[in-house]
Amino acid sequence: MKDENEAGMNRTGMAMALREGRVQEGNAWKNVPASPGDERELERMRAAYEGESEPIGSVPSPASLKGLAKTALQMLEGHDPKAFIDRLGERLAFERSGIRLYELLIGKHRAAQSPTGEADLENLIRIRNQELAHFRLLWDSLEKLGADPTAETPAADHAGVKTMGLIQTLSDPRSTFYQGLDAILIAELADNEGWRMLVELAEGMGLKEMAAAFRQANAQEGMHLEQIRKWWEGLVREEAGLAEAITA
Amino acid sequence: MALDILREKGTRLEDQQFDWRDLVRAPISKLDDDAFTRVRIILMNGLEAGALRFQHACARMNADLRLPLARIRRVEHFQQTLINWLLPPDQSALETTIAYEQAAIEVTAHVSLNEPDPYQAQVYRFGMLEDFDHLYRFSALMDRLDGKDANNILQGYTDIRQGRPTEVEHRAPEDDLRDPYLKETASPLTKLHAITITDAEQQTHDYYMNVGPQFADPGARMLYAEIAAIEEQHVTQYGSLQDPAESWLEKWLLHEAMEVYNYHSCMRQEENPRIKSIWERFTDYELGQLHFVMDLMRTIEKRDPEELLPIELPDPIRFESHRDYIRETLSLELPLRAQGIRFITADQESPQSPSALYRKRLNSKGSPSQMVASGYRWAPGTELRAQAESMKLV
Asked: For residue B380, which residues of chain A lie inside 8 Å, CB to CB?
């Protein structure tokens, strides 16, 4: 069984190179030339690129689906749907990747190579399936608005970039169940905030039915977060040897 | 309009200059630019990488060419930088991989359709069906690891379905060599094709070798290891299509002509004006480099380079979907295997043949490409869409 807290030969710190480390530090601060200027140079260069850069992409226009667009535009009562569609696309991408993240965590639970604490397979699978249902809800909502659920919106693209680190953590065979849970916690925290805003946006646009369905999904996400946080806290305490103290 | 490469002198080598802001430009949009803009960027990056690789090898073997090679190579290096840096950072390594396979499939499809030598055309079709399978395997991986749809990259131009299964593509080295064209009789287009596809495949191999270990997932690490091995075989295959009797200078000249041809093809079809201007500029740079090498050939080898080059460039490479042609090729040539330089059908391959034994040993603990794509069928919006369909709504 894996234990990431086992003491070993970690060589990254200065303390592991007692003599050479001191020489190295001294050499960097002696009378040696350094590159002129300060770290603001980098900021100025970045600002120049920001000034020249186009956005990463556009939200596909719902008007491209003509038959549906009319109904959708009526539903939206004159609101510009682009930002809303972008957010829906983001949640859809995030939920879909979230399903895969949970599958990776379920795999770690089944492989049983590290402590899983209070986490149980049945609940993990239930959460994974609820994420799948949320994905379906978002897909259907986009279709109702006359938008293309297969399109990758800019916010969906950003979501993909942000999720990459979580996938790397969870798909690494060296990471423990706890480390996977830690990654899932980030996903659930972001997901909760995302759903909260979706409810508000749907309400603001007068999409009552959609807002009600989103509220229900948001409530489920709240339960996911609560559950994950509980398992996560339990494992942190267990590893720190505080489990009994807390229980007592 | 045809380009007269013998008359058009392009930009003089000494005027081919860069600065860092010129080299590091705003990238293309992963979401809004056409998939073939990305394909062109990948292809041209590969051809520039091939130019550098060839020119380094040439310099090791030819003392008198070292200085002119170093001068041209410096420009080729910067051309490659400018082009490769056009790829956007929100395009993950796996998404870039999908685009690499799309480039391999569609460009090889065009080449096989337009190759005048029937044997060489057969070789391209043979390789194309293998790259086609790689696209299917990587798409499955992206769906199942990241929850992402490969078609967001492919934009509906290229099918995602099984080709010649990757697990049977593993061959013994002796079955990867092919019969070369003969320099005296081969059409110039045959030569340009062989260099283009060899370079493209070599960059794919090198890309997979670099990004493979960046994945945490063992499935991804195994799949990249397996498909990189096939790309290595493809470089062996396509590299052997070229006549080894060509002189170093002759090969260099043809490489420059190939670059002109490809940049010109890109220029003719590019819709993004910002990128089109790069293809125009580099067509002119390559013409300048070609004429520089033509002069070297006249002075060093005392040969007339015009005899080796087409007066007019062949029709440009068509960057477009070859869906119907690929389906037809799949239906006719899927079961082909290689035996020496010949192609045979799967039932003609003896279980004791070098390739059958080689394959058996490599796959003896399972095949990553089979495992990753087990039961996989692409659907718009990923395979999770079908699962979600059958679920009760919240």
From this structure: 150
